[in-house]
Amino acid sequence: MASRQSENNAQEETSPLTTPNANIARIIPSLPLETRWPPFPLRRYANFWLPEVALKEGVPGVHSCFEPRPTDVFLASFPKSGTTWLKALAFATLKRSTHPPFDDDHPLRHCNPHDCVRFLELDFNQQKDELEALPSPRVLATHLPYSLLPGSITGDGERSGCRIVYVCREPKDVLVSSWLFTRKAAPACGVDARSFTIQEALELFCDGRCLGGPQWNHVLHYWKESVRRPDRVLFLRYEEVLIEPEAHVRKLANFMGCGFSEEEEERGVVSAIVELCSLGKLRDMEVNRNGSTLLGIKNESFFRKGVVGDWSKHMTQEMAQRLDKVVEDALQGTGFTFASTA
Questions:
Q1: Where does the Sulfotransferase domain start and stop, copy by copy (predicted)?
Q2: CA–CA separation, 283 and 286 (whole Å)
Q3: Domains of the chain, with CATH numbers?
């Protein structure tokens, strides 16, 4: 109890209300540390557990140097919630005038979606010039909690802000996907995670001690903003996009300000985008079968089943009930539920 209290005190002393996000790096050693979820050490900042490396470089750089444009579109998500698929769908939709989905040389046919849509906070200092050189409209991605995005992006105060698309996924599927991805991708970071069990992952996930956690709070903040400002924040549920991908691509296009014309509808552009970006198609691309990201993580690691309910093959009912109860208690009185509305 004493250690948890001291951790909370340390957290209060280093909240964004008293410490500018651009100066996080100097107080990192004082932040609560978690090393049990490989491969990166996590630090608790602003009530979220974030990779130490992101707090050292990414977040400060984004807050001090990044200059958003009014036409920018940001794809936000908690890790392993449908990020790769959303990147593909948004990129293919927003850039279809330059890269028609029918083209044999479409970027998604020879580049991983993570190469087409960069994470804003990942190696920011190394890629800031590349981001600046991208033509408008830019589509970028982030795993940062809403509260840690710069006001120039969210539109706090007098600013208009940018468009943000958020995708959420049911917590049990997120947990299992995160656990399996960690075990597969950690070796690229020099860490052997084969002994990292689903039980260990569950314990940490339930306590919010995972990359970006607590997951339900990450989701809740974006959902609240989507309710408050639906013209600026589009909230998508992964499970619903799976059921009706074409309807959601149309919704995505309208939100991004590039709705489909009657001519495009007649030519089957929407269905062509959905087919191009299907997980099956992407998984079979040569670049995704044999290529790697800049971090050395194999592209194939980002493509698994992408189905709903796969958690049941890796978790017991008792484990599932425990996580469900944690999430239910955390969301009580918020008005939000992970249950699909479709």
A1: 70-335
A2: 8
A3: 2-331 (3.40.50.300)
